[in-house]
Amino acid sequence: MLDLYSPGTSLLHRLPPAAKMLAMLIGATLLFLNESLPITVAATLGILALYPIAQLTLKQAFAQIRPLLIIFVLFFAVQWYFSGLELAAYVVLRLTALILLASLVTLTTRSSDMIDTMTRGLRHLKPLGVNPEKVSLAISLALRFIPVLAQITREVREAQKTRGLERSVIAVAMPMAIRAIKMADDISDAIDSRGYRS
């Protein structure tokens, strides 16, 4: 299974996965409840400041959102047209902060540790018919979707750029589709290896 964990010895690397995931949950909730642009700007800068603390570069932080820049521009333009500049900036910054926060947890926590932690936490819901293993794997995969997309996009663009094909939609899209299919195979293998098939 794909794991975007970036090895390190920082405080964030050493924190228990449960603590990081709980902090991410609280942080994401507060970002959604908050409606202030200045607070959102401060939160985004605060999350960015955690990357060097986690021995990660700001380039790595930017790599997490680079594949979504076009979507951000579209969101910004639509919100600006219908609701004004301030709301447009707020919506895009909040989404950016959420992605950076999830990516920070992803980059400092091993996949296996995240899945094991979520599985233990969800065991209390087993009497209600919840399968902790399946749910924890699904959540873990969801958390890793954006960083994986960023990695695939970055690698494909760099490879095509060396061939002078970065402006060709087909030349970029086809390798990405193939990598996405390969990622789906890896995920399927991970599910099979853990015996999560019903």
Task: Give a written overview of the molecule.
There is one protein chain. The protein is mainly alpha-helical. The chain contains 9 helices and no strands. It has helices spanning 11-14, 17-33, 37-53, 58-65, 69-83, 85-108, 111-122, 132-162, 169-193.
Write out key terms for the chains shown:
198 residues, mainly alpha, 9 helices, 77% helix, globular
Q: How large is the radius of gyration?
A: 18 Å
- Average pLDDT over all residues: 78
Order of helices and strands: HHHHHHHHH
The share of residues in extended strands comes to under 5%
| Termini separation | 19 Å
Helix % is: over 70%
Shape label:
globular
Summarize, please.
This protein is mainly alpha-helical. The protein has helices at 11-14, 17-33, 37-53, 58-65, 69-83, 85-108, 111-122, 132-162, 169-193. It is globular and about 50 Å long.
Ordered list of secondary-structure elements with their pairings:
Blueprint: H1 11-14, H2 17-33, H3 37-53, H4 58-65, H5 69-83, H6 85-108, H7 111-122, H8 132-162, H9 169-193
Helix pairs in contact: 2-6, 3-6, 5-6, 6-8, 7-8, 8-9
